[in-house]
UniProtKB/TrEMBL annotation:
This is S1-like domain-containing protein. InterPro entries: NA-bd_OB-fold, RNA-binding_domain_S1_IF1. It comes from the Bacteria. Residues 1-73 form the S1-like domain. Signal peptide: none annotated. The keyword Protein biosynthesis applies.
Length: 73
C-alpha cells in the first residue's frame, strides 16, 4: 500500500518571491509558478530561503497549483 507521499511529484523548483513567512512563489522546471509552503519539518526551524534558491518540491497530482517545500539546496 502506498502513502500519499509516494504518489506525489518531486520536481526541483526555484523560489521566485516570498509571499509571507513560510509561503513562497516557486517556478517549476517547465516555468509554471506554484504557491509553496514549508514542510512540517522545515517549519519547525524555518531556514532563510532567498529568491533564486533551488528547492525540492512535493506536489500532489490532485492539486498542481500548490506545493510543499521538502528540502532547500
Amino acid at each position: 500500500m502506498s502513502s500519499s507521499f509516494d504518489d506525489c511529484l518531486r520536481p526541483y523548483g526555484t523560489i521566485l518571491k516570498t509571499l509571507s513567512p513560510g509561503i513562497y512563489r516557486a517556478a517549476l522546471p517547465n516555468g509554471k509558478a506554484v504557491v509553496a509552503h514549508l514542510s512540517r519539518e522545515l517549519a519547525e526551524n524555518p531556514p532563510e530561503i532567498p529568491d533564486g534558491a533551488t528547492v525540492l518540491l512535493e506536489i500532489s497530482p490532485f492539486d498542481l497549483d500548490r506545493a510543499r517545500i521538502a528540502k532547500v539546496e
